# Entry
Amino acid sequence: DAKTTQPNSMESNEEEPVHLPCNHSTISGTDYIHWYRQLPSQGPEYVIHGLTSNVNNRMASLAIAEDRKSSTLILHRATLRDAAVYYCILGSSNTGKLIFGQGTTLQVKP
Amino acid sequence: DTEVTQTPKHLVMGMTNKKSLKCEQHMGHRAMYWYKQKAKKPPELMFVYSYEKLSINESVPSRFSPECPNSSLLNLHLHALQPEDSALYLCASSQGDRRNTEAFFGQGTRLTVV
# Structure
């Protein structure tokens, strides 16, 4: 299974943009890049996913490198409610597996 | 309804007990998952069901036995567990097609083995 590498933790100020990086150098051509986040005592929550092109939704944007070996989750204006563990995950369209990386703990300062 | 419902929320069991965790979704999803999460660690995939058939078993010990009685329900039967099996058990579901759409997670069952 291909793996992802993320920084252990990041800090941001409230209402500033946040860029969360993820490396996935062994990604296969059929793997999708997913991002989920998990607040304390809750199950993971879907944020965004993509295959090759950059993606935008109401929560965030996903920028995928041209070679697909890395990606960046962009929160355009961080709020205190965005403080969570953010997981970069490779989802195999062949096997259906969603394998979590170690995650980045995001702290948002007022 | 975009919920995955897991019961019970908390469970304490002895090492000789038999118990079951339940997971239910009514989104018409055909893929369902069990994950195990230890404190301050990422969720670890245990099982994947696709169209009610077990498609992936990540070398999980036989004291964990999954079951998918129908397309809406997923059970995890527990027997002769060890204290190190104490963890948050998460269920998830997704459409299960090759578009690899989003997965919805339940709130989990916090299991303590004594």
